[in-house]
What we know:
two-stranded antiparallel sheet; 64% helix
Amino acid sequence: MNRNRRCTDVLFLLLYVAFMVVFFIIGVVGFVGGDPRILLYGTDYEGNLCTEDLPVRYWVNPLEIYELTQATHTYDMKDVKSICLKDCPSTGASGLNWVCNYPDSVDGRGYAGVTRAEWAANNYDYYSQLSADLKKDSLNNKGPCYPVLLPTVNNYESCTYYGNSSLTATTALGAEHGSNGCTPSTCDYELLALGPMVATLSSTVSDFLSTPMATFERYIDDFSQAWVVLLVMGFIAPVVLSFVWMGVLRYFTGLFAYLIIFMVNAMAIVCTLYLYMKAGVIGSDQVTAYVGTDMGENLEGYTDPSEDNQEVIKYCAHVALAITIILFLFTLLMLKRVRTAVAVIKVATQAIGGAPSVVFFPLAPVFASLLFGAWWIAAGIYIYSSGEIKQQTCTLEAGKSPMKYCANQTAVPNANCHCGYESVMDESLQYTLLYHLFGLLWTTQFFQAMSFLTLASVFATYYFRGGSYGGSISGWINTPVIQAFRKMSWYHTGSAAFGSLLVAILQFIRIIVAYMVHQLKKAGKDNLLVKYAACCVQYCLWYLQKIIEWINRNTYILIAIEGKSFCASAYEALSLIFSNLATVGAVNVIGDVLLFLGKLSVSLTCGVLAFLYLDDDAYATGDNKVSSPLLIVIFCIIFGFVIAGLFMSVVEMAIDTTLLSFCKDCKLHGGKPRYAPPLLEQVLGKFETKAEKEAKKNTRA
Length: 701
């Protein structure tokens, strides 16, 4: 390994630092200027947020909400008139309560004779002090006052209707109609028949608050009851089982590798024989001679060919035979490299065993990503809510809500008759959010790049020191992982910023393309040609991203070995891989299969153990009963797969680093590795010819 290192790709490090300074400044500005309450609770009829003095939002006219459920509505919940109150209003115990506009209402339909404090102290009611005309408007649901006929409850600072309409209040409203000379032709009597609408009103408000809270709360209760299962089967068990699987890899890699090779060849032979039997080339007599009479008779029903496709199947059988022969010959040629691959995997697990702390290192970037993600989400919400509050566009049509309940229906929209309010994203805010999104992509990739560099440095050190860490292990304070992290952070953060930038750009382009496709679909312009083109573009971008990630991974390994810049290391990594393509292919195929089996085995075992745990009477009955065991089991499987993936990523990096270190060692020393660990050297020694062994013996002599 190169000990004379220098800082690499400093320009990209400076670029990343400058980008992140702006990123955090934008977040701080968002926290100062944004208010997430507008996203959750909306505004009142004047476009203002409900404040601490008047925190609760109340929709004054239930008929407007009910018309939202009809097929003919041309507005949404934001356009329904609402007002901010101290508490949700209650129906009168002995009469009729009213909720009136703010006394200083901007549309001029308030009551200047009282202040807001007096209005709130009087339960928002000044109906008795209105003129006859304003009282008649109020009876027609046009304000400034609205009767409270339904009980409401505070649900996340919004008043939700529940129960039946108050008989006392409804009777009092009917009497009020009579005392003001109302007739069915001059006043609106719909409020007197609210009873059947209550369920619809309640569900509409609840849907607007977008909270399937009952289900969510039940699941939260399940998690609180079964937290022990989640802890044991979702975290502790995956860690233990991952260590067990690494032990299996260390001692039984060869068995698994040759078993996989045998199964692949056996399946190819079976498929070829089946196709020949299907084509009629091999009859049941030949099959019976090898597998017995019963099996031969059973197969005859499956392999009796039809005359229509017999020739096609025969050609397929010939192709399968050719593939089987090629596969068999390829297997014979690859046996040497398979042994090398097995040795590489065993050396990789030895490297992990020599520095156990390396297994837990991936948790550091995971926690860093979680902390950064929490900041990103919070800042993003505040930035998104920092837009200007403006009236949204809706259809104001005479005789239909919301215009139907306006007192002034001339020259709409006006101060009294208008649509609701929403936070509007202008062009600068949209670009700010895109910048914020790119910051997430770049930073998460940067964390991953630093993790790869650190692990590669650890395992490269193990290889080039002949299968040991030498004097680099000094307890838990100065482990090989900490030493590697210090070295990579000091010299190669610029290279990490460069490689992570490439991946982040591709991810960003993919998100933009996906958004454009979604917009086309939303606009109804996603015809077959557009769908096909979009699918091709998205697949190509995904495939290109995977290629870049693969190049980056191997580049980081060469950076850890040689200390060169990103581009120089990328060229060297690709050169080594293509020069040793067969060995690299054998290692990757065997390693990927074994690691996937490990992740799958760990996660499924955790799921089975969690299910057995929850099947106990302690969680099936009584106070600790879990309503949905399946959800807990699914979470345990997911956690198990994620945690096993973290452990297996360390093994995968160890395998890749050991392989490229071996290839680089061979390149530097004329095809024969000088620094190979004893296990790898032992396997390679078996392939030396007699002449090579004699030459080595003479050299040592």
